[in-house]
Every structure is written in C-alpha cells, then in structure tokens.
C-alpha cells in the first residue's frame, strides 16, 4: 500500500492505474485491483480519533465504537474496488453534508467539553472535502468506462436499541430512482436474505424498515451521476455484541465469504440490464 496525496490518487484513477493507497493524511484507503462496473464503500468503518481532540471529547471510546460501523470494510475486502474511511465519524461524518459533518452533539449527548475552535473543525472538514474529490473522480471514471455503475454502500446498525423486531439487512432507497432501479433493489434484498449465519442468527432483509437511505455518500453520488445506483446496505450488528464491545470474527467471515460471490453476481446482472 502506498501513501499518496489526493492529486496523486486522482491522477492514478484518471490514468486507470491499479493501486492500493492510503491518503497522505491517513483519513481513508482506496484499493483498485481492476476497473470494474461496481464499487464497494465503507464510510463509517473508521475508528481513528485525532489526539488533539481526546481531552475535549465527552464520549468514551466505547461510545464512539458503538455508533461506528466496525468490520464493514472487512465484509467487502475481497472486491476489486474498495474505498473506506479510517477516521471516526465523531471527528467528522463522511455520511453527512459538510455543514453537518462535525458534530456538536451526538445521539442526544453533548460531544465536547468546550466548543471546537474553527481551525480544528476545518482540519476535519478538509479531510471530508478530499474524500469526496476522490469519490467524484472514481465514479466518474467507472461511469465513463462502463456507462453505468453500482455502489454497495455498507453500514451497520445497533439492532438491540429497537423495541421491535428489526431486519438483519435493511436497504435504504428513498433517494434513488426506484422506478428505474426497483428490480435491481429487490434482487439485492432477496440475495441478502439468503445469507446464512452461524449462531442460529436468522437472515431477514427489508427495504426502508429501519433506515431510508438518507446518507450524504448516497446523495452525493446520486446527485452527480445519473447512471449510478447506490445501494445503502445496513447489516444489524449481529456480528458483535454491541453492549459488551466484543466482535464475532466468524460471523464477519461468513458475511465476507458469501458476499464474495453474491455481490459480483448482483453487479453483473445490473450491468447486463443497464449497460446500453
């Protein structure tokens, strides 16, 4: 893996080079093993938190982990194009618009002992800006090369906080073209429902049940590229114990192994249907 500047990453994308990179400021990773018609993203996978923010932050490390999406990058790691955040959403949230990306409160609790100075906020917002420069270059390249693109936008959610039965998988589709892509969405929902787990975890999948797909990553791509479908895909945190801070690596591995063939199969069908 190379450490590259934003300009270097974009130049490599434009030249269709394959590479594994971490951004110069260590805020995200991008690997491109080959140029294909689909992209995998894990914008909330990151847990890094700048040291200069530690003393001012009221939330504990566990509270940050609880609201992040740990292991989502590992679930898609084998695919040819993967972009993933390294920083915690508590520093800046890649799935929110720039004006809302640096939190003052998080999940009903004040985040900072003292308000963040503007220069600290700006440091975080610069990372947000750079990430989206690369996203734009990447999707532009894929759409230009293949005519269409499908993005698997991987997230997780804390299912135990709900007071009703919730699905193992949720697809958020309220901000995509359901008339055009409805069958592709349903095929992905169906495919996810067939994933099997150990531990007698049942696999159910629904559309717009717990979340509706209102994230900035989806909206940014959808607003900028008319032939790209973003599938906001949420897995309930059945792969960890969200209260005891323990991950279940065998469940993560089961998801990764099944997505290894389910995801390219879905992407292939999408491409065959929409490439013209």
Core attributes:
Aminopeptidase; single chain; 276 residues
Please provide a brief summary of the model.
It holds the Pfam family FGase. This protein has helices at residues 6-14, 51-54, 61-67, 72-75, 118-146, 178-193, 216-224, 249-274; strands spanning 2-4, 19-23, 28-32, 38-42, 81-85, 105-106, 109-110, 149-157, 169-172, 205-207, 228-236, 240-241, 246-247.
Structural overview:
- This is N-formylglutamate amidohydrolase.
- InterPro entries: N-FG_amidohydro.
- This protein is α/β, with parallel strands linked by helices and 276 residues long.
- It has a single domain, classed as Aminopeptidase.
- 38% of the residues lie in helices and 20% in strands.
- It has eight helices and 13 strands.
- It has helices spanning 6-14, 51-54, 61-67, 72-75, 118-146, 178-193, 216-224, 249-274; strands at residues 2-4, 19-23, 28-32, 38-42, 81-85, 105-106, 109-110, 149-157, 169-172, 205-207, 228-236, 240-241, 246-247.
- The strands form three sheets. Strands 1-2-3-5-4-8-11-9-10 form a nine-stranded mixed beta sheet, with helices on both faces. It has a two-stranded antiparallel ribbon with strand order 6-7. A two-stranded antiparallel sheet has the order 12-13.
- α1 (6-14) runs parallel beside α5 (118-146) and α5 crosses α7 (216-224).
